[in-house]
Design a protein that fits this description.
heterodimer; A: mainly alpha; 5 helices; about 0% strand; B: mainly beta; 16-stranded antiparallel beta barrel; two-stranded antiparallel ribbon; 21 strands; about 55% strand
Chain lengths: ~90, ~400
């Protein structure tokens, strides 16, 4: 009986954690001001948190796409941020 | 007769016109084929340049330079002993690390970075990342364990404002396992997470810790993670907290029950106060190992101590980016670091270091660093445990060049 109770409690905890995480993820929305940021602005704000802002001419479009994915794993950029920054750097 | 002559002239003229027309036509045809040939070549060149689904590139970094140091060791009740050294780089300050990046479509990235430090050829990371969904990147392989900001984001020579690393930030280092990371907007703010499950740490006979490596030393795994919040809409401030738990004892050893818990907090603030760009960074780590009994390497006696280690650094750098002359390429930096290892162990010390730096940026990714470092380490080790009591002062001068390529 005790074992069943412990197991039930464990499942409740897991479901609770999943529910909380789902709530957090679904509530993660950007407001209009953030959504309107340009790639240039995001490039200036995010890159310089760790290093100097890179020159767009340093790499080609294909290279920036690859570097953008690498940087997303390092800096926890959002997908939209990565896309906008890569688009700006590829111009 | 005159009439015949006129007709003759007319016929001659007509023949000349026809001849010249044919010649022009032949020239035109020749020009067309030359043009078509050039177009075909250009089309081939464009086809060669056409991006495919996969892409491979090599980036990376190198750091080298000159180190001069003076070490003064003072044993209790004795005169100080001075040792001087100078070298064109050393294992801690020389690095050549090409980074190979393979992108497969829009969802897969393979990263491999071998590294030569002058005496060893190692690997900084070798892992694969799958961009599974917005805000979810799954990575597996050999990667930097998510903990704090220094190891994963600031340690590269072309990023670090000072020549050396702050002491006590080697752990948890790089490990084998699986991890998840991502970033999300949150209204005006932003938050990110980075968690991993890896083989974990290994407790050594003297109580020190190291990575277990590719073959785990026990059944337990290490759970590590960092959560960060960027509270301002301009992302100028990032605050992070980290935590880690690992079984550390070798299976079947007297350390079977040994666990490691690690906590950390970090801050990263970068903002332009015209004409200056101000950069403030800091991190605090604390490592707790559950109480164990250790064996003295000196006389095999059993002893114990409170195995708690802490390390911290605070750094500020300022660069006049708004200047319209060469001064904008200079950056001044200062860092204070502290590293306190367990008193009563073989490696107990209370270490402080002040680093003063003047950097000159040749480009956004190329820097010439001049750093003066002054450290003071007071041993709190136990002689029974194999430690050496005394005070060590080190003054070092670095001239270092670092470039990202």
């Amino acid at each position: 009986m005790k074992k069943i109770k412990t197991r039930t409690r464990g499942w409740i905890m897991i479901i609770g954690v999943i529910a909380v995480l789902a709530l957090i993820f679904t509530s993660c929305a950007e407001n209009e001001k953030i959504a309107a940021k340009s790639g240039a602005q995001l490039w200036a704000e995010n890159c310089q948190r760790c290093h100097n802002t890179p020159s767009p001419s340093a790499f080609s479009h294909e290279q920036w796409k690859t570097i953008g994915m690498h940087m997303q794993t390092r800096a926890q950029l959002t997908d939209k941020e990565r896309q906008k920054i890569v688009d700006f750097l590829s111009q | 007769m005159k009439r015949i002559n006129k007709i003759g002239y007319c016929l001659g003229a007509m023949m000349l016109i026809l001849l010249s027309f044919n010649t022009a036509k032949a020239q035109q045809s020749s020009a067309d084929s030359a043009l078509l040939g050039r177009i075909a070549i250009l089309e081939q060149q464009v086809a060669d340049q056409k991006p495919g689904e996969s892409h491979f590139m090599v980036a990376g970094l190198t750091t080298f330079g000159y180190v001069s140091s003076k070490t003064t060791f003072t044993a209790p009740g004795a005169m100080g002993q001075i040792t001087r050294a100078n070298s064109l780089g050393d294992a801690d300050h020389y690095e050549l690390s090409p980074m190979f990046l393979f992108r497969h479509g829009d969802n897969l990235l393979v990263e491999f970075e071998p590294s030569f430090d002058g005496s060893n050829l190692g690997v900084n990371w070798a892992n694969i990342s799958y961009f599974a969904a917005p805000g979810l990147v799954v990575h597996a392989g050999y990667f930097v364990v998510p903990f704090g900001i220094y190891s994963k984001k600031l340690a590269a020579g072309w990023i670090d404002k000072l020549a050396g690393d702050p002491a006590g930030f080697d752990l948890p280092g790089t490990d084998f396992g699986i991890g998840f990371s991502g970033g999300f907007p949150l209204g005006d703010m932003k938050w990110g997470y980075d968690v991993s499950l890896t083989n974990g740490l290994q407790l050594l006979p003297d109580g020190e810790l190291q990575n277990a490596g590719i073959v785990d030393n026990n059944k337990g795994k290490m759970l590590s993670g960092r959560v960060s919040l960027l509270p301002f809409s301009n992302s100028s401030l990032e605050i992070g907290v980290s935590a880690l738990h690992s079984n550390a004892g070798d299976a079947g050893s007297t350390f079977t029950s040994a666990n490691v818990t690690m906590y950390g907090a970090d801050i990263n603030f970068v903002k332009t106060f015209s004409p200056f760009l101000v950069n403030i960074k800091g991190q605090y780590n604390k490592i707790n190992v559950t109480p164990q009994t250790y064996t003295s390497p000196v006389d095999s006696s059993l002893f114990s101590y409170n195995n708690v280690t802490s390390s911290a650094f605070a750094q500020i750098s300022v660069r006049p980016v708004g200047a319209d002359n060469f001064l904008k390429n200079f950056e001044v930096a200062y860092r204070y670091s502290n590293y306190t290892t367990p008193a009563g162990s073989a490696w107990g010390q209370n270490f402080h270091e002040n680093d003063f730096g003047l950097d000159y940026w040749l480009s956004w990714r190329t820097v010439l660093k001049f750093t003066y470092a002054q450290s003071r380490s007071l041993s709190t080790s136990s002689v029974t445990a194999g430690g050496t009591p005394g005070l060590t002062n080190i003054n070092s001068l670095y001239l270092q060049f670092s470039v990202e390529f």
